[in-house]
Amino acid sequence: MAAGPLGKQGENMPEAAQPAPEDSQRNFSVPQGWTVNHSERASILTGPEGDIEIAFVELEPAANIQETALAAWRAIDPQFASKVIREAALPPQGAWEEMHQVVYEVPPNLGRVESAVLRRFRSRAFVNLVRGTTAGMSRRGAQLFEAMNSWKPAGYQEISLKDRAASPWTEEHSAKLKQFVLSAMETMQVPGVSVAIVQGGRMVWAEGFGKREIREPSPVTPQTRFMIGSTTKALTSLLMARLIDQGKAAWSTPVCDLLPDFALADAEITGRLTLAHTVSASTGMPRQDSEIIFQHSGITPEQRLAQMKTMRPTTGFGETFQYSNLLVAAGGYAAARAFCPAGPLEEAFGRALEELVFRPLGMKDSCLRQEDALQAEAALPHAINFDGGVSRLPLSMERFAYSVAPAGAAWSTAPDLARYLMLELGKGRMPEGERIVSEEALLERRKKGVKIDDHASYGLGLMVSDQSGLRVIHHGGNTLGFSADLFFVPERDLGVVALTNLYAAVGFLGAFRQKIFELAFGGEPKAGKTIAMSEKLDREGVALLKQKVAVDPASMEWVSELTGRYRSAELGSATLTKRDDGFWMQFEDWGSTVGSEIRSGDRLLRLLSPPWRGVLKVLVDVDAKALLLDQGQSKYLFRREAD
Predict the structure, then answer these.
(1) Residue 94, pLDDT score
(2) Helix H or strand E segment including 555
(3) Which residues span the domain enclosing 215?
(4) Around Cβ 381, how many Cβ atoms within 10 Å?
(5) How many helices and strands (H and E) does the chain possess?
(6) What is the tens place of the pLDDT at every residue in 167-225?
(7) Are residues 532 and 558 in the same domain?
(8) How many domains does the chain have?
(9) 506-521 and 171-188 are packed helices; what angle lies between their axes, rounded to 10 degrees?
(10) CB of 15 within 8 A of CB of 317?
(11) What is the pLDDT of residues 398-455, one digit of tens each?
(12) Is 491 helix (H, G, I), strand (E, B) or coil?
């Protein structure tokens, strides 16, 4: 494992990955640890473990997208003949005139991916070809996208808003944004939205749209509470900053000093891990969210932390961006212990967040538990279903976040988060004049740490991005039935929050942010096009899944031999049963209808109930009587139990 010395107090990362010199033959950057090989027709980057590679091919476009992609593949592999399973147009980014993705069929049991990303600039096609294992993509995905996004042809120049001031927000701005939101909600099937905008030390606009629950008339208002998912991380690192001001901790405080029983599988890493590391996404710890989602009822924070004793890093400190909810949870609970030395960790964190963040900022409608959220008006979770419509989710599914509360359990309102934005834009001071946190501790969180891609880095519980030449500080959030985005442009005194009650509303929120940039800075008008293309992508994705996944009794008959109980050491029990309306898979805390797919000789069961809608799948090993869930770096085996 690549490892460096511990970071000094105030440093975000112990051993920051330095950008490699720009490749001398091709106009793209080479991430640290990757190797590059050139030929006359292409350049190929290979990841440090050798299980992932990306080719860069520039060529004249062929008659259509798939033929252009095939010509690029033949430039590096004359025998390439993989079958296309999906071609999709992507919303263009920067100065690219068109963007497309082509995905190829790979036998599921191989745990590999093959895809091509095509971008057009003027009369040339710029094609990235990706081959690798699902584990490699999970481990090195950030570096892969860093290299891809750094590739710029001669003459490429993005529109820059660097020298533009933010327009004062007016009623006309609000009217235009309202019109856009209502139209985009209808197109993207978003049940409810709440937004707030901060400028000049005050909330200049807040409004709710749509419904709290799709089957009921109750409207969303600015006071409606939503789960904010990983936007909670920004509040957790603010909590840490306040403790640092109080002298109860430092960014360099070892986690084990605050949680003596805490341990990872690697004793050296356990000893080196500091408070800052837990919220830096730079420690090499992989994402293992399945353990949180599949088995959560009755799991305490203490039990969840004890499960981390099996976690091992898969990359070195500071080497690449790897997002870990479990690690943020550990850091948040460690901070809570510095504030409250005794009692259960859940109570300690709740008390710390209330007394150090919610109360001093005036966030009166924010809380951690859904029981408290439901005491006032609250939105309910939704997701797109297998048929492409919107369904309510059982509220109980959102309890997965309880045991990792510092990473994503908070409920809040748009006006409450506007108060948080006022603090950030005021550099630690509220508009009323009270200083809540020192400027030094607050701004430490915004320092660029590990790179996410060529335009973005992770700080401490915050992301730092260059968007059209403007420095944007942000953190979005997703649970199983809610999506949020919070961002601010400190040099332009503008902050925005948007909350939705729909799972993975990425297209809507991305277009919403773009619309803000259009209205406030005169940015390129492409929010409407982004919505249209996102809707088309979603619609095509639903159609493709329905084409591949069988649910009719005849096609599902072979599944009957699989019914019974299974158990995974990490994810708990799974019971497959046949009912009058089809097959059902019941896990520890939730269940799903089941469809099937037979591809390249492999047999798959796909979970169809929202939010999974066929995307979550298990590979069937009929001979071994086992089901395999491949989550990239983590693979979970459900073994058949004796009747």
Answers:
(1) 86
(2) helix 553-556
(3) 171-539
(4) 25
(5) 19, 26
(6) 999 999 999 999 999 999 999 999 999 999 999 999 999 999 999 999 999 999 999 99
(7) no
(8) 3
(9) 160
(10) yes
(11) 999 999 999 999 999 999 999 999 999 999 999 999 999 999 999 999 999 999 998 9
(12) helix
Give dist(CA 340, CA 240) in Å, integer: 13
CA dist 143 → 52, 204, 285, 377, 407 (Å): 11, 39, 15, 42, 23
Residue 611, preceding peptide bond in cis (omega within 30° of 0)? yes
Residues 111, 246: one domain? no
> Do 179 and 323 have their domain in common?
yes
Spatial distance between the Cα atoms of 495 and 508, rounded to a whole number of angstroms: 18
What does the H/E/C string look like for 190-221? CCEEEEEEEECCEEEEEEEEEECCCCCCCECC
CATH number, domain containing residue 626? 2.40.128
Pair (143, 182) in one structural domain: no
Residues 69-89 as b or e (16 or more Cβ within 10 Å = b): bbbbbebbeeebebeebebbe
Q: Are residues 183 and 277 in the same domain?
A: yes
Both 333 and 410 in a single domain?
A: yes
What tokens does 525 get?
Answer: 């008008």
Q: Are 346 and 302 in contact (CB under 8 A)?
A: no
CB atoms closer than 10 angstroms to residue 469: 13
The two structure tokens encoding residue 104:
């190829």
- pLDDT tops 50 at residue 7: no
| DSSP secondary structure string for all residues of 124-191 | EEEEEEEEEEHHHHHHHHHHHHHHHHH---TT------TTPPPPPP-HHHHHHHHHHHHHHHHHHT--
